[in-house]
Structure formats: C-alpha cells, structure tokens
Amino acid sequence: AQTVTQSQPEMSVQEAETVTLSCTYDTSENNYYLFWYKQPPSRQMILVIRQEAYKQQNATENRFSVNFQKAAKSFSLKISDSQLGDTAMYFCAFMRGAGNNRKLIWGLGTSLAVNP
Amino acid sequence: GAGVSQSPRYKVTKRGQDVALRCDPISGHVSLYWYRQALGQGPEFLTYFNYEAQQDKSGLPNDRFSAERPEGSISTLTIQRTEQRDSAMYRCASSKLQGNTEAFFGQGTRLTVV
C-alpha cells in the first residue's frame, strides 16, 4: 500500500523569504504522480504543482518548485519569495499512474504561516 | 458547470438522522471521487466512480455509508443513522478518465452531527 508522510506539522517563514516543505512517500509502483495541494483558510483545495514520476526534470510553477528525488522517494516543495497569501495548509499527495483509479493518497499536511 | 459544485455547503444534523450530500462534477468529467477530511487531518479516500459504475468503495468506513451516481453525472453520498464521529468535511472531486490526471475539487460539505 502507498503511504505519504509529511513530517512537519507546522512551519513559518518571513514574507519574501524561501521555505521548503518536506514530503516522503512509499510505493512499489514505478509509474505514478505526485502533487502538492494548498488549502487556505477558505478550505478550498487548490492544486499547486504536479510531478510525473517518469520525468526527471523537477516541476516548476512560478514561485513554486519541487525537488523530486525518485530513488529516495522524496518530493519537497520550495516556495520562493513567500507572500502573505501563501499562508495555508499544504498537502502532499500520491496517485498511481497505472489503471483508471486516480484516487489520491494524502499526507497529514503542513500548516504554513507567512509572517509580515 | 464551470466547476465542481457540492451542496449543501453546511449541514447540521442530529445523531441518528440520515443525510444526503450532493456532488455535481465538471461537465464531461468521467471520474468522480469522494473524500472525507476530519478537522486537522488530511483527506481520506472514500469511493469513486467511472461513469455510473462504482469502481472502488474500499474507503467507505462502514455500511452506513453509501454512494451512487445513477446517470454518470451527479453523485450522492448518503450517511445513514449519523454518529458524531461522522462530523467532517466531505469533498468531491472530478477528473477526466485518461490523460490529464488533475482532480478538481468542490468546496466541500461541512457536516456536523450533534
């Protein structure tokens, strides 16, 4: 069975600085996808970034980038130039790549506070 | 519709009552997923459908929980004889069957059992 671990329940960062959120996962699959979702106080669930396991290049979306280490089963999220609006819960999630079942396996989340 | 729509947004019910939560996915999205998120926790998978067929219901906690999607579009998650431990945010997500794997989430239904 797949598992996702986020070892940092809470983190804080000063506005404009860089922060890295950790995520590790366990799977025997070779083809899969990894995601970071953001859940702001409104409790909406917003996709931040996605990584395909077969791609060696780390995904980047504006100020958000990942460090994907497949052998180590690590998938960290780096937020550059942090903004107050980045304050939210961040969830790491895993999805199998094979078959039609696209269910997400989630970590417990990291609560990020961006301080002015 | 433009996005995934869930109703009601908030539901308070007395213990022992039945509740029905509705999800209207993005038009054309074949796959529909239900998740439950307790306060301070990550979401957990409940069940999913491709078209009208329920493909995996391994995450439903017990037989008080059921879901249907009779016409392959709108889905209803029903909880019978609600208990306080059922209180949570219930989220629905939809996605295309193949290719793009992004799941689009609705705003969720906050269920409180008193």
Overview of the molecule:
With 116 residues, chain A is mostly beta strands. Chain A has no helices and twelve strands. In chain A, strands 2, 5, 6, 10, 11 and 12 form a six-stranded mixed sheet that branches. In chain A, strands 3-9-8-7 form a four-stranded antiparallel sheet, with no helix packed on it. A two-stranded antiparallel sheet of chain A has the order 1-4. The termini of chain A are far apart. Chain B is globular. In chain B, β4 and β5 (44-50) form a beta hairpin. Chain B is 0% helix and 48% strand. The termini of chain B are far apart. By secondary structure, chain B is mainly β. Chain B is built from no helices and eleven strands. Chain A binds chain B through residues 33, 43-47, 50, 91, 95, 100-109, and chain B through 31, 33, 35, 41-45, 48, 50, 55-56, 59, 89, 91, 93, 95, 97-98, 101-103, 105, 107-108.
Question: Which terms summarize this structure?
Answer:
heterodimer; A: 116 residues; mainly beta; six-stranded mixed β-sheet; 0% helix; globular; B: 114 residues; seven-stranded mixed β-sheet
Radius of gyration of chain A over all CA atoms, rounded: 14 Å
Biggest pleated-sheet summary of chain B: 7 strands, mixed
The arrangement of helices and strands of chain A along the chain is EEEEEEEEEEEE
Low-confidence segments of chain A: none
Which blocks of ≥5 consecutive residues of chain B have pLDDT under 50?
none
Instruction: Report the major sheet of chain A.
Output: 6 strands, mixed
Radius of gyration of chain B, rounded?
13 Å
Distance between the termini of chain A: 41 Å
What fraction of the residues of chain B are assigned to beta strands by DSSP? Answer: over 45%
Order of helices and strands of chain B: EEEEEEEEEEE
Compute the average pLDDT of chain A.
93
